[in-house]
Every structure is written in structure tokens, then in C-alpha cells.
Amino acid sequence: MGDLNTAMIEKYRNRFLKEVEANVEEGEWVKMCMQCGVCSGSCPLGKFWEHPPQEIFMMIRAGKRDEVLSSESVWMCTSCYNCIVRCPRELPITHIMHGLAHYAKRLGLVPKNQPTAKFAQMFWDNLMVKGRVNELKLGLNLYFMNGIGDGVKVALKNQKIGLGMLKSKRMNPLEAVGGHAVKDLKGFHAVLKKAQELEDKRLADHGA
Amino acid sequence: MAVEKKLAGYLCTGCGIGERLDTSQLVNIATREGKFPSVKQHAMLCSPEGVKLIQDDIDAGEATHLMIAGCSRRSKVEAFSFRNVAISRANLREGVIWARPDTPENTETTQEMADDYIRMACAEVKFMTVPTPSGEQELNKNILVVGGGVTGMTAALETAAAGYPVHLVCDEDVLGGVWKDLYKRVPFRAAASDVPNGRDVDLPGPEDPGIADMIERVLANERITVHLNAKLSKTSGAPGRFSADIDRSSGPTVTENFGAIVQASDFKPYDANRLPEFGYGKTPDVLTNFELERLAKAANGGPLKRPSDGKVVESVAFIQCAGQRSDKEGHLPYCSGFCCTESIKQAMYFREQNPDCDTTILFDDLRTPGAAGEDFYRCGQQAMVTFTKGQASAVVQNGKGLKVQFKDLILNEDTEMDCDLVVLATGQVPNNGPDPYAQLAVDEAESEEEKEAARQKLAVAPPSILNLDYRQGTDLPQLKHGFLDSHFICFPYETRRTGIYAAGPVRRPMDMKQAMEDAVGAAMKAIQAAESAAQGAAVHPRVGDLSYPSFRKEGCTQCKRCTVECPFGAINEDEQRYPVFNESRCRRCGTCMGACPVRVISFENYSIDSVNQQIKAVDIPDEFSEKPRILCLACENDAYPALDMAAQAGIETTPFVRVVPVRCLGSVSLSWITDSLNSGYDGIVLMGCRRDEDYQCHFVRGSAIAAERLSKVGDTLTQLNLEPERVVVHEVAITDLARAPRLLNEMAEMIGKIGMSPFKF
Given CB atoms, is B378 within the 8 Å cutoff of chain A? Predict the structure, then answer.
């Protein structure tokens, strides 16, 4: 995917706003921001962001491509939709944040060990196997995300909850082996394959 | 005017007056103390029957001087507007019963209040005469419009459309003024508001400027006489009979008479040579917004090229607030209010030509007033104009192009951008004549140093536009930054020279659409002034008032206070330095009356006596009664209605106050203050409008002049051996419903503390 990044740089030179407009979901809204800052003020996680949405939009206009696409900030959005509700210009800010994160992922610019990105990948991989999320596996993967020692510690900590869930039949230990799938698993994979084809074609047309 | 005064009293017992007050006692007071031969009572005097009762007496020759007791003089104005009679009104409703609680322990003091208001109204009307026009009036329908720009042309067209002949004086050889070079104009319309979910549908874009068409319409209009390359060398007279000498380079000077004048001299673009930091004058690639219009007009839809080498512009930066909103020497301290939309429009010229052209607007606060306003901002954003909140510090040459250094205010960093062209959004400088009071300052300077300083100020003043031969200078008075003084909120087109109206950017910075709207307003006011002058009636705020000031020449000491202090320059001086009142220039505020130290100036229906008699008519209980008397002189424009409305809202006022409305605090004679203190009043509250820079005074200077005069009243009190707290001056706005009665109540409390006046007899 690195070459897609190079191709995009070549194509848009320093017109990053244009690149965002063409490639990022809802990116055509970025130009309509009037820099009032209501989004940044409304974001419940705003203080943890290196660059709140208002700044991200300004950076896009200022052509700060690398800083935006490799920023942690766009991964910080929890989809609470506060900003969308409050934006006086009615920008779909939440969607733009996810759009930017997705675009960064496509270009391979996600910062290493970005937890949200990591979890998103884990979720995706888990989902792809059986067409539905295997919660037990996803949970275990999360526990052991940072190594075995860490995983055991977390597991022991949550022992009580786990047992309770077992008792009340909220958790089936058999799911750990295989697990059940959607009714038409074959069809599900076919849908995804087709979608990937379409996406690849779009990128090919658009990108380099 | 009737030779004999026939007094007639009318007492309305409606609205609860009959229930709350002893009306037979009120009638007794009017007949015995007020010496009124008759007082008729009616249960609803403002009803057609009540009005007929009064009108019948007038028609029968039984009544020339009317005392109407009932509601405030500000209520039922239409019902009680009888012609050719003098009227005083005793305010028993708002002034008494509504301002006082209806409880048995208050009955006595409430009745005393009503008794006094009857006494006051009876006394007042005896000292009034029926105003009659002076007879010097004639109708002159000609309107003079000074200025051939968009504002002036609009004023001329609107005046002509209303059926009045116009002379348009333009100092250039073509009409159009500063905006004639526009390639496109900022849209005059907003986006459609009724498109569901369509906020960004149908956004307004730049429009044809329409100026050529406007010029054509002016030239083709048979009611409009255009004088090109012309200037006013002398303007004299007054509304209804202005005389103007129009100097024309093309022929002899013509003298024309006018009913009223509109000054629409627009603005001058700010001189960008004062902005060397932005490279203006060093490279032709740095332009002002005005110059860019010419460039765009010359390109006429073709690609815009860099002036230095003709390269097609691929990137352009707009620097907003160039030389504006800054307190730096030589910069304009204000926002010109039109440059943001102007820059959006100009950026769109580039985007339209070349969608790949980078257009960046460096703004601090983007302000988009006007019809299109925010919609036009969105239109620019949709066209991919880049809006960067940043503050430019310098423009430097960078090879063949330019480099703009700026601070990004969102990202908080110093940065720079390359571009082919830089446009400076420079502002408007009002195109006015010299400040008339700067001229007077030279004549009236007391020391040689002051005189020299005043002279130097005058030396850099622009040439006169109107060349008025008024005692108070050649041009219209200014408020701030050279913009004309006009009552900003209530009467925007009024200036401090009656019958001369200001429109457009001479009175405040504005865009073309606003200037056109202004022109319509000023044209209508000018027509109204000409028509009012023909009837000898005042214009705002005492619209229709037929009274005017006259003076007793034998008593006049030629002290010139009236001629100097008149806020409207209405009074000239004759060869012997006696005042010459120009009736139709007068706004009837009475500032001259308050100024006169020998009390020789008066109006037929408002004089030193008419107020003094009211003050003296009040019954002053003795020192031991615990009933102080407070005199309130309240401005009839704001303070008096505020008190009325407070009463309507049920806000309680002290029963010890007696309120006398005055036309303006500027009309207050110091003799009223000393006389009332001498006759035993315990306190005096003066209520005028807000004064000074952000004034609300309907007569501009009246309130300020009064405050100045009254600042010395403390000495008088000390001489009388009285506490200075007994006289206070307050600024009261019409919205001060709760505050105005409180100020009166506070005075009552104060008297409770410092004790009663020892001057009671």
C-alpha cells in the first residue's frame, strides 16, 4: 500500500484539501468548516486529542498531509456525535474523522501500535472468519494483546465475571474451538470478495 | 391666536381615577387655586363623546387654554390633539394612581400628588400661548443631492420617483463614484430559505454591478439635473429655503434654491502606501481590493494576469483588515464592514477562471454583513476558496513571485505561503469636509498655543463639501474617525444640521447594498424636511411642533451662549451679534433656552415661566410634616416614558416626587434649580439621556451640555448652605423601567437621612 501513498502525493502535490475531498468519506465537507471551534469544545475526549477536529480541518487546508494522516487524533473519535449535533455548519464531523482514519489505514500511514487501529483490525479479522463476531475469541485476543503475562493477569482479574457469565449461560466455552457461523457463510464471503473487487477497482481508477 | 385666554378644565374619571381619587377636591383645586372658571368631568374623556365635549367648547369659543387631567401626555395623543389651542395635561393615571399602591394608608399622599399635578397643569397652561407658524415658510420641492456615487444616484432616483425635482452635484466628470470600477458586485440576495435540507442549495454568487444601468437611469430622468465636475461654493439658508451656489468647471456658477439636502459624498479608499510591510508600492503584484476590481474589469472574464510580467495568476492571497482594526499610527481603527464579502467575491473571480488557482483568504474575524452575508461566505467555501484564520505580518518578493508571512491563529504557528499576487483588503475613509468644530476651535482658542494647535489640525483637514455659511462652521459635525454625527440608533440619517441628511459611507462604513438602502431613507427624510418646513413644523423628534424660539431683544446681552451651544447650528448672529433664529433649522429642543443666562429665550408653549410656574404651584408642606418634596425634571423622550411605563408595570414610586417633563435636559434653566431650592424643595432629580460618545440624546448634545452646566450646581448649593446631594443628574434610558423609579425612591431615602430643606415657609 505504500505505493498508493506515493501515488497520491504525486497526484495532488500539496493540494491536500483536494485529495481529502476526492478520497475521504464525506471529505467534501472539510472546506465548509468555518473554524468556530464548537466541535473541539464539544468533544468529550477533546482534551486527549493532540489535534481536535477544528485543528484537523485547518491542517488539511494548510496542506499538512503527513501530520494529519499519521495523527493519533483521528483514531480518538468514539462516535458520540456531539460535534455533528452542534456544528452550526452541519458538517458530519464524526464521519469525516472515521473517513480520515480509514484513508490513513489504506495508505499505510497509521501510527504503529495505535490501540484503536489495532482493535479495529482484531475485530475485522475475527468477524471475517465466521461472518459474526466471536466474542469469546475477541475477548481472549484482547486479553493477550500485550503478551502472555499481561493476558493471564487480566484474565485472573476478570475471573469472577467470567464465572458468573458461564453460570448464567452468557458465555459458551465451546465457542473457543471453532464457534458458530452465519447461516450462509459461503455467501457472506462471496459478498465480501465482491466488495473488495469493487473497492480495488475504484482505487485503481482513482489512485495512480 | 385668541386675544383673550379662555381657561377650561377637563377631568377624566376613567381608568380608576374616579375610584382612587377625590375628584371633587381636584375640581375645587382647579377652580379655586387654579382660577379655572369650569372643570368638566367625564368618565372616559378619550372616547368620541369626551373628545366632542372638549371640541364643542373650543368651537363655541369657550376654550383656548385647556387643562386635561387624566392619563399621561404620552397616552391618547391622537384623541387630545386639538388644533389652535394651548393644552396642558395633568398626569393622574401613570403619574399618580398607577405609580402608587391602592392601600388606605397611602390614600392621603396619593391624593396630595394628584392635587399638585392639577395645580401644576393649571399653572402651566396659563403661561402657554398657541403656537403659530412664523409665516416665513414656503414649499420648495427641490432636493439637492451632493455626491455622484451609488449612494447619491440612488438618493436622486428615489427622490425623483417620489415626484420631487433633484439636482445632483458630482465632483467628477462621470457618475459612479468609487464603485464605478466594480467588475461584479457582492450579491444583493440571500439563498432561498424554503428548500428542505437544502442549506447549501441556490447560494448567491457575484452579480452584475448594475452601475452603468444606474447612471443611464439618472441621466435619462427628466426630474434629475446632473452637474458634473461641480462643487458647492456656498450653501446658505435653512430647510425650505436653502440656497446653493454650484460651481461648474463647464460654465458659470449657478445658484439654486432647495427644500432639503442629502449629502452622499461616500468614501475614499484607504491609502495603501501606508502599508509598506505588505510590499504595496514596491511591487505591482500587491494590489488593493479597489485596484483588483479594475484588473478584473479589464480582463473582462479572461484570465487574470500578474501585473509585473503578465503571467496568469495561479495562486493569490487576500490579506483582510489591511491597515484596519488596528491602533497603529496611520491605520484605521475601525472595521469597514464591506471588505470580507468583497474578498470572497474577488477570490471567486480567480476560481471561476481557473479551478486550479489557489485562493487563500487570510482573515482574523470574517464578517459578512448584508443580504447575502453568510450564504455568500458558504458560496465562497463551496467554490473551494481557502479560508485561513491568520494574521499576515509581511509580504516579500520571492523570485518572480511573492511570499506572505503570517501567523496561523488556529494552529498557532508562524508560517508562510507562496503566491503570484497579493490583494490587500483595505477600508473606507469617509469623504467629509472639515470638522466644523475644528474651525471654531481656532476662533475660540483662549491661548496662542491652543490656537496654533487648532490651526494645525485644520491645516490637514480636507476641503469643505457643503461650504455652509452657518455660524457653526462649513460642514456637518462629525462623531468619530471623521464619520458624520447622526443619531445612530433612532434617526440614522439625521445630522446635526437640520434639513441636511447624510446617507451612505459618510456616516458609517458600509457596502453598496447598505448604501443604497441608506440613500432611500435619507431621500425620504429630505422630502419630509422640505414638506415640514413649508408648514413651519419641526422635524424629528418633535415632529409637527409649530413652536419656535424667540427672544426679548431688550434683555439680550449678546453673550453668544445660545449660538454656540445650539447642537444644530440653527442660530446665526447678526452684525450686532444678536442671535438670529432660523426657525426651520430649529429642532425645538430648548438648549438655547437653558443656555440663556438672562432668560430671554422662550417658545410659545414652553418657556422659563411655563416650567417655573409648575414648580411654584406645588404645595410645599412644612418642615415638620415628614413629607418632603422632590422635583424631577425628566427628559420627555426617554426618562418620562420610562417612568410612565414603570407605572404601567406597577412599579412603585415615592409619593413625594413631582415630575415635570422637559424637552431635553439641555433646556433646563439653572434658574429652575435655584428657584425650586429657594421655595423649599428638598431634592431635585434630573433625568436625561445617555451622553457623550455613545450618546442616546435625541438632540445629540443636549444631555451633555446640561451635565456640564449642572456640574457647577454644587457651588450654588454650598452658597445656599445646602447639601450637594440634594441635586443629582442621572442618565436614564427608555428601557430603565425598574431603575427610573428607584432613582426617585433613593432620593427620598437620602432626604430621610440628611433631613428636610430648611427653606420652607
Answer: yes
